[in-house]
Amino acid sequence: MPEGPFLVVGLGNPGPGYAGNRHNVGVMVLEELGSRAGIRLTPGKGARARALSGEGRLAGRRVVLARPTTYMNESGGPVRGLLDYHHLDPADLVVVHDELDIDFANIRLKRGGGEGGHNGLRSITRSTGTKDYLRVRVGIGRPPGRQDPADFVLKDFSATERKELPFLIAEAADAVELLLARGLEAAQNEVHTRA
Q1: What is the pLDDT of residues 110-164, one digit of tens each?
Q2: Is the C-alpha dihedral spanning 68, 74, 75, 81 positive or negative?
Q3: What are the GO cellular component annotations (predicted)?
Q4: Which residues contact residue 155 at a Cβ distance below 8 angstroms, ignoring those fewer than 6 apart?
Q5: 136 within 8 A of 106, measured Cβ to Cβ
Q6: Domain architecture of the chain: domains with CATH
Q7: N or C, which end of the chain has less CB nearby within 10 Å?
């Protein structure tokens, strides 16, 4: 694993109205990482203008933690700006995001692959010109019955899920730290056997 820095991005939508949404679980995990590492996220200027970010150390690696302040479907621009500003390759990018195709409370790690209809990932792929970045996929499960997935992700977690949410956020943050400390394969071996 390179020494870093790694750019760790938590995806979500801006504003208090979206804060508890399933779609914002990436931001929730990022906040947990910031609090563990004592990294404060502050508004940037220039290339970093459309994101809150902060630098520090996490799991023994140099990191830039960031959350775009744009809507989810425009996440790519701010991510590209941060990569350029910090002279990082998309291979050093870790994106933490919600994943419909994984059951609630499960976490999966991978590099590359499709976007599965996720507008945040689609925007990042378009802006970076590659799908070859690391993803920490936080399972939110499929919507019940015939509910539209687009509506489902913009709803808050259910009361039952909210009881589990602190554990899920902590486990996803642990997974990010493992990924940084030990690399993808070792982290996958540990995280994927927990489910």
Answers
A1: 999 999 889 999 999 999 999 999 999 999 999 989 999 999 999 999 999 999 9
A2: negative
A3: cytoplasm
A4: 21, 22
A5: no
A6: 6-194 (3.40.50.1470)
A7: C
Phi, psi values for residue 17, rounded to 5°: -65, -25
pTM of the model: 0.96
Would the annotation count 71 as a binding residue?
yes
How many Cα atoms occupy the beta-carbon half-sphere of 46 within 13 Å?
Answer: 6
Annotation says 118 is catalytic: no
The vertex-114 CA angle with 109 and 115, nearest 5°, equals 85
What's the pLDDT score for residue 195? Answer: 57
Percent of the chain as helix, strand, coil, to the nearest 5: 45, 20, 35
End-to-end CA distance of the chain: 25
Q: How many CA atoms lie within 13 A of 133 on its CB side?
A: 32
Q: Which amino acid is at 98?
A: D
* 189 known ligand binder: no
Amino acid symbol at 163 = K
For 125, what's the count of Cα atoms within 13 Å in the CB-facing half-sphere? 16
Q: Please, how many CA atoms are within 13 Å of residue 52, restricted to the half-sphere of its CB? A: 16
